[in-house]
Amino acid sequence: MPIKVPNALPAAHILESENIFVMDADRAYSQDIRPLKILILNLMPIKYITETQLLRLLGNSPLQVEVDFIYTETYVPSHTPSDYLAQFYGTFDEVRHKKYDGMIITGAPVEHMEFEEVAYWDEVAEIMEWSKTHVYSTFHICWGAQAGLYYHYGIPKFQVPKKIFGVFKHHKCVEHERLLRGFDDEFYVPHSRHTEEHKEDILKVPELTILAESDSEAGPYIIANLEKRQFFITGHAEYDPTTLKQEYDRDFKAGMNPQIPQNYYPDDDPSKPPIVRWRSVAHLLFANWLNYYVYQETPYELDELYKESEY
After folding, report:
1. What are phi and psi of 167, to 5 degrees?
2. Catalytic residue chosen out of the listed positions 152, 170, 191, 236
3. Who is most buried in 10, 73, 162, 172, counting CB within 10 A?
4. One GO CC term of this entry (predicted)?
5. Beta bridge partners of 169
6. 3-state DSSP assignment of residue 165
7. For 102-161, how does the pLDDT look when each residue is reduced to its tens digit (9 = 90+)?
8. Does residue 129 sit in the same domain as residue 103?
9. pTM for the structure as a whole
10. CA distance 74 to 15
11. Is 309 among the domain residues?
12. 120 with 22, same domain?
């Protein structure tokens, strides 16, 4: 089945060129199917890149998925034109009365700041609180994961001496977990961050379980509260093959002498095309989340979800 996206969304043309089945809103409305409703809070500066990465994975499913995008009103991104936001995005106030099968909160380039110093922190905190009664399952990525762990469970983040930058080997920490179904015993995932959570702080919270981690410097990768259907993903399985390369090239041209991303270029040679080791993991991760923690569990009538909500 296709992923339903707004008419004329630029990401749709990219996905169609990759033979990913995309359906515009007009055609979707003609089908008598109850699609999964997914809300994406996109905190990244260049919206269309993150849109394409996420929609590529959400679209690789037998389920019909309907996506709404929102951005923060308290900080309007300067790298995305206002007319683009007006055409394809809404604000939290425009969706707070709705309920969703699932939600994704993306990363954001603000990890050097304390959470409360981020211009849109209060708004993001309000959205995360709202998600507890209006979203069946929430998927937090990178800074979004750090923000969620801090807001919901008080887990702090810490600066690391050296940027966690590259493609790192991970392993499963639990057996027979549906989110990890089909994963190999060892698998690779990209990371790009200057901060981390300490494993011992996560283990102090009885509601949380570390589902997968890296024995190298990348640390815990997937943390979950399965009862509340919250997932916190510290890496970037959704990254394109050249995302780390573009980041490295940008910093190199700026004279920042960046470190070469680990386990990414053959022989650590940036002149060679990078090796993609994480594509299958990315598709499994998102497909398993959609199937086992959204489609199989969410009530058919979303109005039945937390009727007592104050929003």
Report:
1. -120, 115
2. 236
3. 172
4. cytoplasm
5. 188
6. strand
7. 999 999 999 999 999 999 999 999 999 999 999 999 999 999 999 999 999 999 999 999
8. yes
9. 0.88
10. 31
11. no
12. yes
